[in-house]
Amino acid sequence: MFRTALTFLALLVGTVVFGGLVLLAKLFGVRKAPDSVYEKAPRWWAAWLLRAAGVKVVLHGDDGLAARAPRVYIANHVSWFDIPAMIEALPHYGFVAKRELEQIPLFGAAAREVGVIYIDRENRKAAFGAYEDAARKIREGNPVLVYPEGTRGHEYALRPFKKGPFVLAIGSGAPIVPVVIHGTIAVNPRGEFRASPGTVHVHLLEPIPTAGLTYDDRNTLADQVRERMAACLRTQYGVDSASASPDLAESRSRAVIAPTSA
Q1: Which of 74, 108, 128, 210 to pair with 224, CA 20 to 30 A apart?
Q2: Which whole-number Å values give the CA distances from 91 to 39, 74, 194, in the listed order?
């Protein structure tokens, strides 16, 4: 209980302090640049929160993270703690997140300034417009992270992937880096208001090129990425994604809208 209270307090204080710092930087005209406050503040926020929760992040694989090459990171999503864990693991990238997050006071505006791209999942035209904006930023050298399952799951077995992230990757021409996150359920399971110390493993898998692909290749690309992530979960953690029920996963996605990235 103490750890949960400490983590919640750290979340509130960290969001006010680091989010406020970002908004002040914008107010005073600080330019966005590599290693500016717009990049550092999210890392400070994530580190602050992870330390409060007693969470250690272990990165497996590299993929030339320091090179700032265009990339689309595709990750599984099982916990709210996936977000700070990924910020800790990757030095600089933006999120594609659902529009509801933008309505959170202070957090929504600060997140937008540090590179979060919001999409309206109920408006197909607006969503693809946001993906076009994200594709442009990727081509300019700004990596982006997307959770293709759309919302958090209750278990590590992969659920059906939405196709938008793969349209984004094809449109950008950037390689997809499949990412497997494991350990965050023990830290903070979906539907439970608690935080526990633990170790989170982030696996960066072999990139999959998208150059030369077209819109018609989106399903094949999604299957290829999902298969690579499923293989990692199976070999590293004994998780069988084939056993997950697509119908159950799909009904959960429609029934619950959680405050997480899209």
Answers
A1: 128
A2: 8, 16, 27
Report which of 67, 72, 17 is spatially closest to residue 40, judged by C-alpha positions.
17
Give the whole-angstrom CA distance, residue 258 versus residue 260.
Answer: 6
Instruction: Calculate the CA dihedral of residues 159, 92, 214, 223 and round it to 10 degrees.
Output: -20
Dihedrals phi, psi of 229, to nearest 5 degrees = -70, -40
Tell me the pLDDT tens digit for each residue of 16-60.
Answer: 999 999 999 999 999 988 889 999 999 999 999 999 999 999 999
pTM summary value: 0.86
**Burial per residue of 103-141, b for 16 or more beta-carbon CB atoms within 10 angstroms, e otherwise:** eeeebbebbbbbbbbbbbbeeeeebeebbeebbebbeee
In this structure, are strands 72-75 and 144-146 parallel, antiparallel, or unpaired? Answer: parallel
H helix or E strand, kind and range, residue 144: strand 144-146
d(CA 71, CA 247): 31
Domains and CATH numbers, the chain: 54-255 (3.40.1130.10)
HSE-CB at 77 with a 13 A cutoff on CA atoms is: 24
- The residues near 87 (Cβ < 8 Å, ≥ 6 apart) are 42, 43, 45, 46
Model pLDDT for residues 146-199, shown as the tens digit of each residue: 999 988 999 999 999 999 899 999 999 999 999 999 999 999 999 888 899 999
Quote the tokens at residue 104: 């959170």
